[in-house]
Structures
1.
Amino acid sequence: MEKLIELDKKHFIHPTSSIQQQQENGAKIIVDKGEGIYITDVNGNVYIDAMSSLWNVNVGHGREELAEAAAEQMKKLAFSSTFSTFSHKPAIKLAEKIASIAPEGLNAVFFTSGGSESNDTAIKLVRHYWRIQDKPERRKIIALRRGYHGVAAASTSATGIPEFWNMAGNMMTDFHHANTPYENGTDKAIASLRQVIEAEGAETIAAFIAEPVQGAGGVLIPPVNYFKEVRKVCDEYGILLIADEVITGFGRTGTMFGVENWGVRPDLLSFAKGVSSGYVPLGGVIVSDEIYNILKEKSKGTLFHGYTYSGHPTAAAVALKNIEIIEREGLVDNARKMGDELLKGFGRIKEELDIIGDVRAIGLLGAIELVEDPKTNKRFSPDLQVSAKVIEALHNRGVICRAVTYEGTDIICFAPPLIMNLSQVDSLIERVYGAIKEIREELTIVLNK
Ligand code: PMP
């Protein structure tokens, strides 16, 4: 372990991590293997992977079938391009499968290697869509504050968390942000969206992009009518709607895609993570029949956008098997049922402990907000590092979770594998209760309560 930590410090620049913290403290958990909902570190400690790693290991760890699908495909064909006039069976079959489970009227897929590439692709596709219809001025993108869409050029700019823009100087031009419906409610959030549209000029806007549930912003579940109102506004102004389903796709929220909860049909839907349960990097964008028809009719010559690994055969073969598992094992239904149980458990914790604010879950995507005063939702002072302490107490109890501390919040996020059973949910709840209780007791003197 010590040797690994030294090598990690010396050679490995971690994504979305503090380099200084790494140099001072070293990697804390070096993960070795996984089985079902559990992961084991190199010291043999076992944890519930309550985030499905990065919201992605939907079918759980250790699936031999997926390893076999990868091996079979690798042995048969290492790689082949899908550029120009080339194609191959795994990509064709996966595109067909995704079309068959996608919301009605979305039937054509462009493949990428992950969520950031998917959103950059969606943004470039909508701009292309307007250009080939002689409306090149429609290029602006509106997104939500606290939205997360990735770290490539356009997806960073669409992301509504300023730290991601500031890291390299600034964001691209032509990106604008409206208020999130979470906390603001539908009416105010729609008014904010309208205000941005009117200020910028509807005829200059290509698309609005949003996550059906804002994940990295702190699992922010919108009011039920929000997306219906968004759809109306988009239609009124002729703006395309992009649903970023990178987290919510493939069963996470108890429906195959998150938009199904809200009864709306987006014009484009970006996905990644759950499509392959993280076993291989894969993502993509599904476009509506209307958009595909325009592309077929008006996109002349080469579409100058493509990744070497668009439709990688091994990734496609694994994703096909992964979707087969999700369907065969009824994991979408299970996510809904277990999500209800998880939420009930959160409710019980809230009743017991006086530092819990909002608790929420939709399918197996949930959060617990820690606050100093649940009556007023007064937040803790950031100096207290409350969520960091809870995360550590959870580690000590064998649970891996993630905290969101955006703008002084203390949000503990949950997105466990969709294979959770009732006793595993109960065990998770018990450990979460124990961890928060421990920190609550530590805070007694500071809070004087
Ligand atoms: N969109 C959303 C909603 C995400 O949660 C993420 C990743 N957490 C991304 C896009 C970016 O995906 P990736 O990290 O695979 O590039």
2.
Amino acid sequence: MTFTSFIPPERTLMGPGPSDVSARVLSALARPTIGHLDPKFVGMMDEVKALLQYAFQTENEMTLALSAPGSAGMEACFVNLVQPQDTVVVCQNGVFGGRMAENVKRIGANLVLLESEWGRAVDAQALDNLLEQTPQAKFVAFVHAETSTGARSDAKTLCEIARKHQCLTIVDAVTSLGGSELRVDEWGIDAIYSGSQKCLSCVPGISPVSFSDRAVDIIKHRETPVPSWFLDQSLVMSYWSGEGKRAYHHTAPVNSLYALHESLVILHDEGLENSWQRHQDMHQLLATGLEKLGVDFVVPQAERLAQLNTVLIPQGIDDAKVRAILLNDYNLEIGAGLGQFAGKAWRIGLMGHSANRANVALCLSALKEVLV
Ligand code: PLP
């Protein structure tokens, strides 16, 4: 058996992530590796932190990029904040809310599940009612942008309700960061995590996280140590902290962080609000074209994510065959349905660098040819 270099095909990524990574970010990735405690690298990490504070719209000191994917960001929020004696309300309206619930169960804390219909936003009134009856609740957790369904929940209102009931909030922003309006400080979010591979259009495998002062206070005054050594934020923070000498915690993925830095510079150059608007504009363009093809959306208009368009597979169409033709003949990836929507829906991503006119045009013309 002989082995040669792996040369991936050039795809257009319009699935649920990863999204297209720009040549600018890929070339940042290919720059020479330097030591992860090299003063030049540490200086770049400080910029990554400042750029993440901008992307999250926060002044939280504990804002950093975990060397692991979004699921690790999720786990970091839960294992650092939630202890076995705590009650956590998890709002579930798709696959990823279910993963949050699983985290609570594994910690051995008391899980209260608030289920909303898949394909709809989390029901804010139902959360208010539930918290009224659950005075022992300490945390409310929800997914801002449910990638499994394409629904956007009203994070601002859900946080207001949580605060009214003296609860802290844990928010999944894996698919929303950079693509949907998100204001961590203004909305009073206590712990939030995201992923590098969605609307930031960076390579997968990094999870930006941010913790409010209230959340940091809980981490500092825990009765027991955080059960995960790698994800213990008080240890990770001593590596990311701007003050004094950096303590070795683990070897950071140096080149991936160059790539994240570049993708955040691109976001900063464009401007956060312009990026949100671009996602919205591309979504409108796609939605108009899909309508002409007679393809229907799963999510009601007011609750739709611009960056993740979940559409019903038209009657009589072979799901796997169409996606295979798009991939093999058009080099175009769209996503299959997940969970309750497996085999029933497609997920068309317009995330970050992928959210552009050329991609929308390619997707619409390819679908037009394949669906007739
Ligand atoms: N949360 C949401 C909403 C996601 O869409 C994903 C991934 O698609 C995750 C969490 C998990 O992120 P990762 O696959 O990077 O671990």
3.
Amino acid sequence: MSKLTETIEAVAQMILREKNYLSDLDAKIGDGDHGINMARGFEAVLEALDTLEHPENPKAVLHAVGTAILENVGGAAGPLYGTGFLCASEVCAEDERLTIDSAERLLGAAIAGIEKRGHARRGDKTMLDVLIPIHECFTAPYADGSTLYECLADANQAANEGVEYTKTIAARKGRASYLGERSIGCEDPGAVSSMLMFRAAYQFLNR
Ligand code: ADP
Ligand code: MG
Ligand code: MG
């Protein structure tokens, strides 16, 4: 076990706990399977963490997480999250430590990978409306003069605000886009899963 694998375990437990909630949100503007998809992915992640050869190597851990999600989750969000973890792994050193700089670099790479694969942008009512505001909290000038823990707290708040923002806009990507304006008023399920994943990591690191 390492601090990173323990953090990812906390994230997995959050997703498993909130499985029904995420599917209920998806039932309103999609096909009702987001919680099922995410839980399947994070069950595979927990198994992968159990058999890791190098839990102390964050690059290898992130690669294993991305692979487990990619190989086990269908639908839209699974491949996007899997890609995000793999892209983060690509820019992660084998002895990387959590700092403002590494959080900025890894989140930035994950977001770039998700954008490239899904062709969505901020404002399309997707997970990106939470992930991009989280990332911003670790970039200059926002992060200037802040400690890592201040950035984490700001990002946790930004994630909550990102979810609220998705309620106010119409979906332009994914299944919810079939509803167009009728998706206004509902939060995006992928935005909520991103927020919950970050919240779990934040609470674990702040414990
Ligand atoms: P599916 O829509 O295939 O059933 P899920 O329900 O698991 O897959 O995931 C839906 C979520 O995926 C959405 O709430 C949204 O946040 C995210 N999503 C869908 N399409 C995209 C995209 N092109 N880019 C980024 N995120 C997307
Ligand atoms: Mg769905
Ligand atoms: Mg589906």
4.
Amino acid sequence: MTGCYGRTKPIFGDFAGWLGALKHVMIVRVKMNKTGPKNLMRSLVQSLHAYVPGEQPKIKGLIKLNTNENPYPPSPQVLATVKAAVDARLRLYPNPTAQPLRERLAKFHRCSPENIIVGNGSDELLAMATRAFVEPACCREGLPARRRHHIIQFFTPSYSLYPVLAAIHGATANAVPLAADFGIPPVAELRRQRKWDFRAALTYITTPNAPSGRGYSTAALESLCRAQKGVVILDEAYVDFANENALKLALKHPHVIVSRTFSKAYSLCFQRVGYFVGHPELIAGLDKIRDSYNVNGLGQVAALATLDDLSNYRKNFQRIVATRDRLARELTALGFRVLPSQTNFLLVRPPVFRAGEWQRKLRGRKILVRWFDYPETSDYLRITIGRDDEMPALLKAVRAILWQPPA
Ligand code: PMP
């Protein structure tokens, strides 16, 4: 035995070579055990805390109100179109730039396809934005001070993915608290507080906000956008349940991008389709770093079919909003503090028990809601609006928990 293990003495012949090889393998294994494969990763990844998505358990009879999915299925027309597309075409790559969908979205938003990029869910695009617009903290030397190239900024509480994206990219996260009522402080107040960075390379704003559900006026968003030097992403994942949207800001200000998704209002979480609307130069930059076939073919088919059936979906939004407002009134009557919502969920502060305990008690009754154990939210539960026939079951469980005799 020679080759990479090399050393052989004629007297021992192959046996000596074999022993040498064995010894080498054992040394490598001992070294590996000492340090472990973990040490083959970048130290940034070793110490990373990954994003924690809401659980997706398959429990029979479970009422799932924890991940802000739409409780109603896609329209019959969308389902039929997707089913009809499941044929021999599955062997082909999909359209690499989702061009027909971009064209359709451009018509819908009265802009050009060059204003639009489609992603594998809006999460993919939010992550791509860090790579396109932000320098990792280690690489900022020599860059002009006009912008703070390594800073990713967001309010807290908002979408808990943003700090993870900053950490993955090795950027510096600037997390600034919202006002006590989850409102965005006015620009003058942000300047006075001196925590907010008007030169941050990238700012994410969840509007309407998650997890509070609070909506923001386009005028307030515009004055903040005007004050920012870097890119601002208005994450409108829940905007179809809100009173207004800020899409026009993306077509007016070259540094503003609006992020949308088919997941929530359009019942297509499973298909993973989201998109950005923004200035063609920013969109072209993002397109350079996009995976070649990032949006799967059935997702493109489903999103196109959805845009052909919007009247159906508008009825769906209205129904969810009506259920939301009814549930808010009923929970308020039961002693919950319910925050005003412009989304498909409610953030509520429950009475009697701590929020974490409520989550466990509801889970015991096969109702899943979300509890975020962060300082600003640990007193609250986030409840996704379910189907009309699921809400009485939620209220029944709430009453039973409230009125159960102490153990
Ligand atoms: N933004 C916000 C505020 C969200 O809550 C979510 C869903 N968790 C997303 C973006 C991402 O949605 P998707 O990737 O399904 O488009």
